[in-house]
Structure formats: C-alpha cells, structure tokens
Amino acid sequence: MIADLPVLSATIWLPILGGALVLMSGDKAPNVTRWGALITAVLTFLVSIPLATGFDPSTAEMQFVERSAWIPMFDVYYYLGVDGISMPLILLTTFISILVVIAGWEVIQYKPSQYMAAFLIMEGVMVGVFAALDAMLFYVFWEAMLIPMFIIIGIWGGPRRVYATIKFFLYTFLGSVFMLVALVYMYFKSGSMEILAFHDLKLDLTEQVLIFIAFLLAFAVKVPMWPVHTWLPDAHVEAPTGGSVILAAIMLKIGGYGFLRFSLPITPDASSTLDWLIIAMSLIAVVYIGFVALVQSDMKKLIAYSSIAHMGFVTLGFFIAFMIFANPAVETGAELGMQGGMVQMVSHGFISAAMFLCVGVLYDRLHSREIADYGGVVNVMPWFAAFMVFFAMSNAGLPGTSGFVGEFMVILAAFRADFWFAFLAATTLIVGAAYTLWMVKRVVFGKVESDSVAALQDINAREALVLTSLAIAVLVLGLWPAPLIEVMDVSIANLVQHIGVSKL
Amino acid sequence: MQYDLTSLMPVMPEIFLLSAACVVLVVDLFLSERTRLLTYGLSLATLIGTIAVTVWSGGGEAQVLFDGSYIRDPMSDLLKVSLLVVTGFAMVYAKDYLVQQEIYRGEYYTLGLFAALGMMIMASAYSFLTVYLGLELLALSMYALVAFDRDSKKGSEAAMKYFVLGAIASGMLLYGMSMLYGATGALSFPQVASALQTGAIDETVLVFGLVFIVIGVAFKFGAVPFHMWVPDVYHGAPTAVTLLLGSAPKIAAFALAIRLLADGMQSLSPHWQDMLIILAVISLAIGNLVAIAQDNLKRMLAYSTISHVGFIFLGILAANDKGYGAALFYTIVYALTAAGGFGVLAMISRRGFDAENLDDLKGLNDRSPWMAAMMGLILFSMAGVPPTVGFFAKLFVLEAIISIDMVWLAGVAVFFSIIGAYYYLRAVKMMYFDKPVDEAALEVSADSSVALSINGLALLGLGLFPAALFTACRAAFGV
After folding, report:
1. Distance between A174 CA and the closest CA of chain B, angstroms
2. What are the chain A neighbours of B422 within 8 Å (beta carbons)?
3. Choosing among B367, B401, B429, B465, which should be mutated to test the A contact, i.e. which has the most A CBs within 10 A?
4. pLDDT tens digits, residue range A110-152?
5. What ipTM is given for this predicted complex?
6. A 104-123 residues with CB below 8 A of B?
7. Any idea where the domains of chain B sit in the sequence?
8. Residue A392 contacts residue A432 (beta carbons within 8 Å)
9. What is the pTM of this model?
10. Which of A75, A76, A175, B289 fits A218 for a cystine, CB–CB 3.0-4.6 Å?
C-alpha cells in the first residue's frame, strides 16, 4: 500500500535532486530552468499528497515510517515519519513552494537557475526537518536550511541584503548550536538519538531547565519571539519576495514545530516551571510588536512585525496548557490552545505568504516598499486591490477567514487560564485590524497621488493564479477547519496527555 | 640477532616512496621546463603507487619492527593513505601556479615527496628517535620549500622565521625527550609506557619533560601561544608551498601527538590533559578572533588553522580511544578542506598576479559558478555547517568531550565556532554577493578542476555518509 512506499524520502529528495539538475542547467536557457523548477515543485506536491490521503487520523503513532542505519556507532538513524502535527506542515511546504517558483518566474532575471535551485533544495530540506524522527537527522536538516536562505537573501535581496543575511545566519546559528549540545547530552543519557526516546527520558529539574533553555534559544530565534526577533524585519525587508514568503510561511513554523516536538514533551516540568516566561514573551509579542507594526512606513516591515505578533499567538497557545493544568477549576482547554496554535501556524502560512506576494506585486512594478509612495491603487489595479483587501482582512482575523479560527481558539483557551491573558491577547483584534487596515487604506484607497501609480498595470494571469489559490486556501480553512483539526486531534491529545505527566 | 629480509615487508610503502623519489630527482635533472610535465606525472604516479602499496601490504595486525622503533598498525595505514592523498591534491593544484609564477622547478616535487616520506615515518614512529627522524625530514624539506621562490624577499623572510622557530621547537622536543629517556631509561614507546606504569619514577622529572614535549607538539601544530610562525609562513611562502604546508603536515602532527602522548605517556594523561585544555581554549579564542581582522586570505586561513588545531586538541585531550578517533577524523577532514581552500587560491592566481587577498574572491560566482560552489562547500565545511563533513568532524569531537563530562568545554568550543562562522561567511559573501573587482577570465586546467570537484564533492559526500570514514578512524584505535 501507499504507506509502504518511501513517500517521505521522495518528498525530501525529489526537490533536492531537481534543484541540483536545475542548478546544472545553467542560465543559457532560462525558460528551461523555470519550467524544470516548476515541474519539480508540482511533482513534489503530487508526491506529498498521499501523506494526506493515506493518513490515519485515529492514531498518534508515527506513520509513513522509514528507518535505516546512518551513523551506526552513534546510533544515528535515517529515521522519518509523520504524525498529525508534522503532516499538515509538510503539505503546507510543498504547496507554498509551487507558488514561490511561479512568483519568481519573470521577476528573477539574474541567475535564475541558482535562484530556483536554492528554493527547491530548501523545500526538500524543510520537509526533512518536519519528517525527521532522529535528533541528529533533524539537526542536519535544520542547519542545512541556513545555507540556501543565506544565499537567497544575499544575492537577490534589497540594498542592505548583506547585513541582513549575515545577521540572519549568525542569529540562527547561535541559537541552534546550543541545541546541539543539549541533544548530544541527551544522547549520553538515553543511549539513543531518537526523538521519541527523548520523550520518555527521565531528567531531573535542573537538567530539564538547562535543556529547555538550550531549545528555547534555538526555537525562539526561529519563531521569532520577542526579544530575539530583530533579525526578522531585516531579513524580510531585504529578501526577495520568494524568500520572504518561504521565511514567513514555513521557516517560522519550524520554530513552533520545534516547541511541540522537542521542548514540551522532552522537558515538561521545565516548561511548566518556566511557562510564565514564554507566556510573557508571547503576550509582549502580541501587544507590543503590534504597536510597533502600527508605525512602520515600509510595507514589508509592517507585515514582518505582524508575523511576529501572530507567531506570539502560536507560542501562547502552546504554553497556556500549563496554566490550565495549574488552574484546578478548569478541566479541559489545554488541547484547544495547542490546536489553536497549530491552526494559527497553518493559517499564517497562507496569509503571510499572500501578504508578501501582494507587496511583491507592487514592488515589481514600482520598486518601492514605502507606503507613502502608493495611494489610490484601487483605481488602476482593481483586481489586485480586491485580493489585497481580502488578505488584509484575514490578516486582521476577520471571521470566515482562516486567520480568525486560530486566534479565536487560542483566546478561548487563554480565558480558561486567566481572564487577563485572554484580554491582552484579544487586543490584537483591535491593534491587528488597525495596522493592517490602515496600511491598506493608505496604499489601496484614496486618490491616485502620483504619476507612477497612475501608470500601474493590473495583475497578470500568473499573479492572479498564485493569489487565487491562496485565497481559496484561506477561505476553505476559515469556513471549514474541521478536516485540519481532525487530522491533528489525536496527536495533540496524546501530546497534552504526555506533558501532563511529570518526569520527576 | 639474525637479519630477516621479510621484516622489511611492512615498510614497503616507505621503501617504494624513497626509491621513487630518488628516481624523480634524477630524471628531473635531464628535463627542461617544457618537459617538466614528466616530473609532475612521475610524482603523482609515485604517490598513487605508494597508496597502492600501503593498501596492498596493510590490513593486518599491528607489527612492531626494528627493535621496537617502528610500528605498522591500522592507524599508521590510515594516516599514510590520507596524507598521501592530500599531498597529491596539493601537487595537482600547485602545477599551474608554479608555471604562472615562473617557479616551475623539479625540486618542488622531490622536496614534496621527501616531506611525504618524513610524514609517513612520523605516522609509524614508535620510539623517540624515529619520531625525531621523521619530524626533521619533514621540517627540512619544508624549510627549503618555503624559500622556494628564491628571489622573493617575503619568502626568504618566512623561511628564516620558520627555520629558526622550527629549530627551537625541535630543541624543546628533544630536551623533553631526553628528560623522559633519563627518567625511564627507554626510547621505545611501549617501554616508556610500562616504565611509567610502575609508578616508581619521580613525577616531577616526568612532568618537567612532558611540558617540553607538549610545547614541541604545540609548536608543530601551531597552537596558541606557539602559533606566531603560522600566519607569517603561510603568507610568505608561495601559495603552492602553503598548499603543501597547510594541509598534510597536520596529519603528521596528529601522529606525533598520538604517538608521544597516547602510546608513550598515556599514564601521564591527567597532566597533559590540563595543558591541552589551556592550549585548546586559547587557540580557539585567538584563532577565531584574530581571523576576523585579516584581509589577507592566506593569513585568515592561517588563523582559521589555529582554531581548528584547538578542536583537534579537544579530541586528543579526551584521552580515550573515542576522543583520539574523533580527533583523527577531524584532522583528516581538515587537511582535505585546507588543501581545497588553498587550491582555489592557487587557481585564481595567474601570470604576474598572486591572489592572496579576500577581495580577490569577490564575484567569483560570476566568474566561475562551479569554482564558487566548491569554495562555498569548503568554507561551510570549515565553519561546520551541515550537511558538509566539517559539521560531523566538530560533532564527533564535541561528543567525545561531553562523554568525559566536560560540557563547559563543549560550550566554549561551540561559542567560538559561531565567531568563526562569521569570517567564513564573509568570504562566502564576497564570492556570491559582491561584484568582481577583477574581470579577467579564469583559466583553470582540466586536472585542477577535476581535482577540485572531487575535493569539494568529497566534503559533501562525506557529510552525507560520514559513517565509513569514521568507522575507519575509530577502528584505528580499536573502538
């Protein structure tokens, strides 16, 4: 059956091999390069579909498992598998990657083969991060992501790209090396490199706290959480559109995924002890970064800050569980917060990708990201304006769009823990609406202020295709989130049960 | 004692290399610059032949020869094969450079081969005297090579510095050895080890001698604070010689350290462990920090070497077979990486232009995407970013350190690795993000580009499948 085929390996290695071929094709025939990249991306997506269709949502066991020896003397295995937490994220990756290839079609004229190859290789590596069940394999994929992203921002980015890309690389490298030390330490404790074996490893509180902090450094930088978020606006602003999309839609999710796969189940007692820290950081991200977004004059920076605020919801949803456990008056709700965080991750993947693509559409035409340079776009680009307004609404969490579902679930869960957490989190509904809609007002509506705006052309078929597919995804997930929640339900219930049991 | 000719069998590789080097020396006398390709071909054939003989005659149990002064064991075989391979790469990369800089002379090859012979002797040395014999053969060949471009003032200065400091280091080493010999009455390592194990000898004398031996080893490795010669010599020597000097001799230095410290003085390990901790930490710190300030690529790589030596020392100071295996893996990987790095430097030089500044890397991706990609792999491997093999080299060393409960030392090492990542990234940045300063087309001969491709892809391949080489490294220490 499908479950016996190496679907995960195919999803990882097909884009990497395709990327290598694209790279070797050179830049003599750019169209061959582009079509080659597109075919690879579409094939990869098709290959990943069996993960959804063949998935059994009734079990929290790992599925589509592949396992063979890799570095036997350290008990490191090439060990892959997915559960309800990682499977949706893999599909998100393969889906967004197609859009990224299409979005870079005509825009990228300088060395398109290297551009496309970098994205394809990164796609494979990111799927590897979500699928790896061996800690060392996970770490290798995790770090390998940095190289293509470093190159993408550095070559095709904006004016301050070199500063941004080196900052991005060193920040994330700094975060992750301490995770490596923690992983090696746990290997000596448990004699195994399997992540699932780490879940059952007995650790005392001091060990847990140190390991938790090592993980936090790695994942908090990636998410990014306040106060280690400062690389993100720089990287986003300077990255080419495709780079911003991948960063916002998928790379940030890898941080959130890390919390679910490593921090919570491996160090539940430390997570419980330090939950106030994470919740405080998340709420600061939601409230304070929301206000920071309000004053941005650069569209990409604004969306970057809005991403940080939205990711604050994700971490809030994950860690509110411990507050709910601690509150004797409440029995349930922990699952709700985590599910909300997961839904928020997937939904933010779509919405942030769409927002960055919208800015990309404008930037390709006017080569400016300044809000002040626009105004009255709706008069010359009505179709585009419709898409932009729709995505802005969903970014602000309008009911009926996917942005609402996750935020609502997290706020609901926060209520079970403490009214004031919910209150602070809910301010985002106002602040988020304020900064997104105010930007839309200044960019899209009003009178046509300048000649360059008057000369704008509406979106072409390629851009319409990309934005439409994202709009459909946002609507479907917003109106009918049940299938997604169903897929992750058992895995999350299992996780909640696991972290509810002390390891001490 | 009766002399048996079959006892020479285990040293066949050395005999083969020595004979072939003499043949190359004589043949070269009759060649003009136009026909010098024959010397090059013969030298490579010699290296390949020596590798073949080593592989063919090796693989058995450890054999001790010549009254306990020489040993043929799996570790020496692995060291020899790797140092010969690395020397081969260096010679391929060097050829075009020598031609372009008008120093295409046969002595480069003969001295290189004799240096390789010296390194092989170090790899197999089992007594104080043979260690010293191999060391001096290597060092004397290298002194001459550094001054190879005799009209270059920079080269002569570097050679002078190298010679004087190298002689002091050898003196220190000899002095330490004499102390040990005086205390134990033995020259051969197993006898030294068993004499030490009796515990009857006054520790003060032993530690006194040990200090000098560790200084000698640190000097040969170029560990801080005995690193002063490294940047000057790397910088002053012609790139073709830096290639030879900066790559394979690290493998020989590793052999020196293991034979002396592990085979000879394992029972003194608590003492030398403390010394190596200090050397390793300051090498990591100074090497990485000072490398940031360099704008000369050769000096930058020299300081990066110093920091890598810190990592090798970390593996050795674990003082167990796992640690030695990890350090061996690290050394081989580093030698291969360094050969590639200096090789690229030699390749972007051309007639009348000696590439050595970081700026010369600018825009390499525009000039030659393939070479930029290979150099990228080399730099990422040095920085220790997966999936290149440099990551696993660091990982295995960290694992060895954490297994002896020195987590803090692992923390120090990763901290300085992050600082190190910065200057490697800066070099990648110049290749990929900057416009070329120098638009001249790169002319790279087929043999160099094939060698660089093998070298670069090996770093990736070994990163994806590190198990085989690592098994060999651990098998060398019987783990």
Report:
1. 6
2. 166, 170
3. B429
4. 888 888 888 899 999 999 999 999 998 999 999 888 888 888 8
5. 0.84
6. 111, 114
7. 5-475
8. no
9. 0.88
10. A175
